[in-house]
Automatic annotation (TrEMBL):
GTP binds at R14, K68, T96, K157, R264, V265, R266. Belongs to the radical SAM superfamily. MoaA family. Coiled coil: none annotated. SUPFAM superfamilies: Radical SAM enzymes. Binds 2 [4Fe-4S] clusters. Binds 1 [4Fe-4S] cluster coordinated with 3 cysteines and an exchangeable S-adenosyl-L-methionine and 1 [4Fe-4S] cluster coordinated with 3 cysteines and the GTP-derived substrate. This is Probable GTP 3',8-cyclase. The gene is moaA. Catalyzes the cyclization of GTP to (8S)-3',8-cyclo-7,8-dihydroguanosine 5'-triphosphate. Keywords: 4Fe-4S, GTP-binding, Iron, Iron-sulfur, Lyase, Metal-binding, Molybdenum cofactor biosynthesis, Nucleotide-binding, S-adenosyl-L-methionine. [4Fe-4S] cluster 2 binds at C259, C262, C276.
C-alpha cells in the first residue's frame, strides 16, 4: 500500500468514466473539472475500456481495494458492465449515478460485479427536482432506485447535496429513508471550491444539530470523520449499516480532519491522475503509458498528495483560508 507524506494510505480510487451527463445540476463540480454540458455521444478524449482496466490493475498491485465509478454520468458508458467485469477481484466496486439508466441495466451491472450504488436525489418533489437538476427525469430516477434494490443492491444510498436550494428538503428526505427499507441518505455539504457561488453555502452544523435531536442513535466514524444518525428506525443488531433510517453527513468544506482522512486518488475521464478533488495543478496524464509508466505516475501522484484544508490551504490571522505560501513558492519555481 502506498502512503503519502502525511501518513495517508491510498486505499481507494475514484474513476470518472466520462464528463458527459444527461443532467445539468446547478451545483455540479463534475469531479473538479467544471461544466458537464456538451455532446452526449462518446468522445475521443475518454479513456478506453482497456485504459481504465490497465489503470485499475496497477492500482490493485498497490493494494487499492475499492473503486468508485463516477462522471459525468458513468452509465452513459455502454462498456460499464465490461469495465466492472474486468475490474480486479480484490476491489470493492461502487457506482455514483443519477439513476436514470438503472431501469433495465441494474441487474446486468450486479451480475458483472457491482456491489454498491449511490443515486443522486436532491428532492422528493418533481418540480423541486427539476429546478436543481435541470431535468424532468424524476420518475426515471425513482424507477432507477427501485431497479437497484430489485437487483440486490441493498442498501441504496441517496446522495443529496445540501445547499441553499435544498436545505429545506432535508426533513422530508430524512423521513423518506426512515420510511423505506433499503434506503440510506448521504447529505453532502455543498462544496463551492470549484463551482463558485459561496453564497449557496449553508451552515452544516445546523443540520448536524437538527439530526442529533431526532436521532435514536449516533455514530462517529473516525476513519472519514463522518457522523451517522439513525432516525425513525434502529440500527441493525450486528452493528451493520443495513437498517432503514440511516443518515450520514459528509462535510468536507474547511474541514482539516476530513482531509487528513482522505485515502483516495482520482482519475479524470481523460486519464489524468488527480490527488485531490479541489486541485487541478497536480494532474498527471496516463495517456499512452505502459504499465510500468503508470506505476511510476501513480507513485508520484501519491507522493505529491497534500491535505487540502490544513496544509495546502491554511487559515490566516483573520480566520480566512488562503494558499500556504510554501505551495505558492513551490509552483512559482516549477
Ligand atoms: N452523475 C452522477 C451522479 O449524479 O451522481 C455522478 C457524478 S456527480 C459529480 C457525483 C457526486 O458529486 C454526486 O453525488 C453529487 O451529488 C456530488 N456533487 C457534485 N457537485 C457537488 C458540489 N458542488 N458539492 C458537493 N457535492 C457535489
Amino acid at each position: 500500500m502506498l502512503t503519502d507524506e502525511f501518513g495517508r494510505e491510498v486505499t481507494g480510487v475514484r474513476v470518472s468514466l466520462t464528463d458527459r451527463c444527461n443532467f445539468d445540476c446547478v451545483y455540479c463540480h463534475n469531479e473538479g473539472l467544471g461544466d458537464t454540458r456538451g455532446p452526449m455521444d462518446p468522445q475521443d478524449d475518454e479513456m478506453s475500456t482497456d485504459d481504465v482496466v490497465r489503470f485499475l490493475e496497477v492500482a490493485a498491485e498497490f493494494g487499492v481495494d475499492a473503486v468508485k465509478f463516477t462522471g459525468g454520468e458513468p452509465m452513459l458508458r455502454q462498456d460499464l458492465a465490461e469495465i466492472i467485469e474486468r475490474t480486479p477481484d480484490r476491489m470493492e466496486i461502487s457506482l455514483t449515478t443519477n439513476g436514470t439508466f438503472l431501469p433495465g441495466r441494474a441487474e446486468e451491472l450486479v451480475d458483472a460485479g457491482l456491489e454498491r450504488v449511490n443515486v443522486s436525489q436532491d428532492a422528493l418533489d418533481p418540480a423541486d427536482f427539476a429546478a436543481v437538476t435541470k431535468s424532468g427525469a424524476y420518475e426515471k430516477v425513482l424507477e432507477g432506485v427501485e431497479a437497484a434494490l430489485d437487483a440486490g443492491l441493498d442498501p441504496v444510498k441517496l446522495n443529496m447535496v445540501v445547499f441553499e436550494h435544498t436545505a429545506g428538503y432535508v426533513p422530508e428526505m430524512v423521513d423518506h429513508v426512515a420510511d423505506n427499507d433499503g434506503l440510506q441518505l448521504q447529505l453532502i455539504e455543498y462544496m463551492p471550491e470549484l463551482t463558485g457561488k459561496p453564497e449557496w453555502n449553508i451552515d452544516i452544523q445546523r443540520v448536524h444539530d437538527w439530526l442529533a435531536e431526532r436521532a435514536t442513535e449516533i455514530e462517529h466514524r473516525e476513519m472519514h470523520d463522518r457522523k451517522r444518525y439513525w432516525v425513525g428506525g434502529s440500527k441493525a443488531h450486528d452493528g451493520s449499516s443495513n437498517s432503514s433510517g440511516m443518515v450520514e453527513i459528509v462535510d468536507p468544506v474547511e474541514n482539516p480532519t476530513f482531509c487528513a482522512n482522505c485515502h483516495r486518488v482520482r482519475v479524470t475521464h481523460e486519464g489524468y491522475l488527480k490527488g485531490c478533488l479541489n486541485r487541478n495543478d497536480d494532474l498527471k496524464s496516463m495517456g499512452e503509458m505502459t504499465k510500468p509508466e503508470i506505476r511510476e505516475a501513480f507513485r508520484d501522484t501519491v507522493a505529491d498528495r497534500v491535505p487540502y484544508y490544513g496544509e495546502y490551504m491554511v487559515q490566516n490571522d483573520d480566520g480566512q483560508w488562503e494558499i500556504n505560501e510554501k505551495y505558492i513558492e513551490e509552483y512559482a519555481g516549477a
